[in-house]
């Protein structure tokens, strides 16, 4: 975001800003109008992948082409101030 500002452009408007992991600072940036979205991937991604690998190694079962795991898209419509307030003390 700072690099966009340094280039004389407006983050979130001139250049869309989307992040991954839903860290607190991105919600603050959304509140300021400097970010457009973030995607939060859940820690549950490893389990289904491990299960598919385990089934392949044990039984030769081919894994599905796609393994759908849970994730969440946050936009300015999702109360970014509330999300920031809930996450700001998490240490990341």
TrEMBL record:
Highest taxon, organism lineage: Bacteria
Coiled-coil zones: none
Ribonucleoprotein in keyword set: no
Compartments, as annotated in UniProt: Cell envelope
Gene3D superfamilies noted in UniProt: 3.40.50.2300
Key word Signal present: yes
Family: Belongs to the bacterial solute-binding protein 2 family.
Protein name per its UniProtKB record: Sugar ABC transporter substrate-binding protein
GO cellular component: cell envelope
Database matches in InterPro entries: Peripla_BP_I (IPR028082)
Organism of origin: Agrobacterium albertimagni
């Amino acid at each position: 975001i700072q690099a966009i500002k340094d280039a004389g452009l407006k983050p979130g408007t001139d250049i869309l800003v989307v992040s991954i992991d839903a860290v607190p600072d991105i919600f603050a940036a959304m509140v300021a109008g400097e970010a457009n979205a973030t995607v939060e991937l859940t820690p549950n991604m490893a389990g289904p992948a491990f299960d598919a690998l385990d089934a392949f190694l044990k039984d030769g079962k081919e894994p599905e082409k796609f393994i759908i795991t849970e994730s969440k898209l946050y936009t300015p419509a999702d109360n970014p101030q509330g999300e920031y307030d809930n996450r700001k003390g998490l240490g990341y």
